[in-house]
Every structure is written in structure tokens, then in C-alpha cells.
Amino acid sequence: MRTPFCFWQRAVAAAVLAGAITAPGTARSTESGPAGLSPTELTWLRAAKPVLAWARRQGLPLNVVVQPQDTPGQTPVGMAFIEGRCVLVLSMRANPAAQATLDRMPPDLQGPLIEAVVAHELGHCWRHMQQAWGTLPTGLAELSGFSQVTPEQASLLRDMWRTRREEGFADLVGLAWTLEHHPRHYAAVHAWHTRERAQQEVDTGPHDTRVWVRLAQDPAAFTPGATLFERVLALWEAGLVEGF
User: Where in the chain are the domains?
Assistant: First the structure.
């Protein structure tokens, strides 16, 4: 996300309480699409249907909302957590990043890739529902003993690395979804993730998930598990050990 997660989450919560965010069926727009949705929003929502339907069958407390106001600079698809529920938020009005992301998707892979992106967000949802967001598995400890940085800088570094860990977990969930539902497209979807994560402004920054994406190149790296989320845990932990 381009904006710090905690501030973005609070902004979304405030918008929900103020009525600025509405369900897709009531979103306001000057566009001519069904229910006032823009063509870009419709593309994302229609392609995301299999993932959203699966989430409901799993009993995840999930809402989907579309921001009807202009949202330039916000992440086009993100997850907020409000009053014990996950809220998948589409921020696409006057936001070139939404269409730009679609434009980077090969047309024949657009459906599987959008599903992987939305499954990524479900990874965040699951971690929050487990009350585990930002935590480490047993046996691993937070980095400490920073030198030549202020206490405030040390806190920012820890927050950045926590976000990075969660983004790595979520990327693996998106790839695991692809392996389960679109196995013949796995190599291509994985290659797209590799390209998307290749350029990082800061090594080990909040979206530097390259170590997890690399470890997931071989589909056999995923382990059997009762749920989609449990199948990525061993691979996620391997990336934690290697990447820090």
C-alpha cells in the first residue's frame, strides 16, 4: 500500500461510519455501468467472484465495498478490519493505478491474476481473524539491538518488517489459490508476481516479498494442509528464516 496501513485503515473506518463508502450495489457514479459501477470496478468485481464466493463458504466475516469518491494515490484493492469484520475495499475512482494494474496483466491471465490478488487480501483477513497479524511463529523473535538509529526510527523499521512479513504470507496465499484453482496457469501467475515484486525502492521494505515468491517457484514447495492458509505456513516460515 502506498499509505501506512494503520492510517489507511482508520481513514476507511471513518469513511464507512460517515457513509462515504457504500456496497457495490449502491455505489454512486456518473459512469454508465450496472449499479453505477465503472468498467474498471466491474472488471475487478466480476473476476473476483470465485474468491469471494469461496470466502463466504469458509465463513470468513467479509464485506466488499466500493469507494464512490475519488481516491487517487490509494491502493486500488485493499483490506481493512472494522468491528471484527474484514472489509475488502476497492478504491478506483480517479485512481490510475487500478487500470494500470489491469494493463500489466496479460489478457489471457487477467481472471486468474485478479483472483490471486483478491486471495492475497484474504490472507490478510485470515491472519487478523486468527489474531496473528504482525506476530511471528514460535521460536522466532523480533529483530532488536538497532544501532545508529533513533527509537522512533527503530519502531518504524519494526513496523515495516512486520508489514513485509504479512505481505509475504499474503502473496503465498494468492499463489496457493492459483495452484488449487488454476494449476495450468501457475507458472505464468508466479512469473507475474516475480516481475511485480522485482523492483523495490528499499530492500526488505514493506512490499519486498521476493524471498517468498522465489521459494514458491516450485509448486511442490506448498505442503498439505486442511485449509488454503495452512498450506502456506511452512513456506512462509522458511522465508522468515532466510529473509531476515
Answer: 5-103, 130-243
- Give the pLDDT mean for 134-142: 82
The closest alpha carbon to 122, from 92, 89, 90, 88, belongs to: 88
**Residue 29 binned pLDDT confidence (cut-offs 50, 70, 90):** very low
Residue 68 corresponds to which amino acid? P
What value does the CA radius of gyration of the chain take, rounded to a whole number of Å?
Answer: 18
Work out the number of other CB atoms within 10 angstroms of the CB of residue 173.
Answer: 25
- 135 close to 190: Cβ distance less than 8 angstroms: no
Residues facing residue 64 across a β-bridge: 88
Task: Report the 10 Å Cβ neighbour count for 111.
Answer: 18
DSSP letter (8 states) at residue 195: H
Burial status of residue 80 (CB atoms within 10 A of its CB: 0-12, 13-18, 19 or more): buried
Q: How far apart are alpha carbons 130 and 61 in whole angstroms?
A: 12
